[in-house]
Amino acid sequence: MKFIKEEEEKTRDYILQKDSTTKATSKSIIVILILLVLAVIASGIYFLNN
C-alpha cells in the first residue's frame, strides 16, 4: 500500500493523493491543530496565574 498517490497514477491502493483537495485539507488541519495547541498553552498560563 502506497502512502501518497501521484495524480496521474491509476492505482486504488493509497492513503493520500497529491491533489489540491488533499493539500488544502492538510493545511487547514495543521492550522486548526496549531490554534488548539496555542489555546491549551494560553489557558494553562491563565489558570496558573490565578
Question: What does it look like?
Answer:
The chain crosses the membrane at residues 28-48. Keywords: Membrane, Transmembrane, Transmembrane helix. This protein has 50 residues and is an alpha+beta fold. Helix content is 60%, strand content 16%. It has one helix and two strands. The chain has one helix at residues 20-49, and strands spanning 2-5, 14-17. It has a two-stranded parallel ribbon. The longest helix has 30 residues, at 20-49. The mean pLDDT is 86.
Strand content: 15-25%
The SSE order reads EEH
Biggest sheet, in brief? 2 strands, parallel
Helix content: 55-70%
Unreliable stretches covering 5 or more consecutive residues: none
Mean pLDDT: 86
Structural class determined from secondary elements: alpha+beta
Shape descriptor: rod-shaped
Question: How far apart are the termini?
Answer: 51 Å
Strand order of the largest sheet: 1-2
Number of strands: 2
Count of helical regions:
1
Radius of gyration: 18 Å
